[in-house]
Write a structure and sequence with these properties.
Keywords: Membrane, Transmembrane, Transmembrane helix. It is a single chain. This protein is mostly helical and 144 residues long. It has one domain. Helix 1 runs antiparallel to helix 2 and helix 2 packs antiparallel against helix 3. The longest helix has 46 residues. It is elongated, with a radius of gyration of 21 Å.
Length: 144
C-alpha cells in the first residue's frame, strides 16, 4: 500500500513540474509577441530612412510611416498594455475553470488532461504577472 502512495505522490510531483514548465512557456508567449512587434518596428524604421517616422523606440505615436501602411507602433503598444489583463482575466480563471472541470465525472484520461491544462494555465498566469511586473514593465517603461 505504501508503494502505491509513493508512486502516486511522485507522479503528482512530475505532473506539477511539467505544468509549471508549460505555464512558463504560456506566460512567455505574449511577451515574445510583444518583443517581436517592438523590435520589428525598430528594424523597419532603420530600413526606411526616407519615411518621416518618429525615433525607432517612440511607441507613443500610433502611426508610423503612413505611406507604407505600417501600424506596428499601436499594435506593440496594445499588446504591452493588455498583458496584465491577459494574465489576470484569462489565464488565471481559465486555469481554475479547467482544474475544477477535471473534478467532474469524466474518464481518467480526460480528467488528467484537464487537470494538467488547468495547472498549466494557472501557473502561466502567476508567472506572467510576476514576470510582467518585475521584468517587462521596468525595462520597457522608459521607452513608452
Amino acid at each position: 500500500m505504501a508503494r502505491k502512495s509513493v508512486a502516486a505522490r511522485k507522479k503528482d510531483e512530475h505532473e506539477n513540474r511539467n505544468a509549471i514548465i508549460v505555464g512558463f512557456l504560456l506566460a512567455l508567449l505574449p511577451i515574445i509577441i510583444f518583443l517581436w512587434a517592438f523590435l520589428s518596428r525598430a528594424g523597419y524604421v532603420e530600413e526606411s530612412p526616407n519615411c518621416s517616422c518618429p525615433p525607432p523606440y517612440d511607441t507613443g505615436s500610433y502611426v508610423c510611416c503612413m505611406a507604407s501602411g505600417v501600424f506596428l507602433t499601436s499594435w506593440a503598444f496594445r499588446i504591452y498594455m493588455s498583458l496584465p489583463t491577459l494574465y489576470v482575466l484569462i489565464y488565471l480563471p481559465l486555469g481554475v475553470f479547467l482544474y475544477l472541470l477535471s473534478r467532474l465525472g469524466f474518464s481518467d484520461g480526460i480528467r488528467s488532461r484537464l487537470r494538467f491544462a488547468g495547472k498549466s494555465f494557472f501557473a502561466g498566469g502567476i508567472i506572467g504577472i510576476l514576470s510582467f511586473t518585475t521584468v517587462v514593465s521596468p525595462i520597457f517603461s522608459i521607452h513608452f
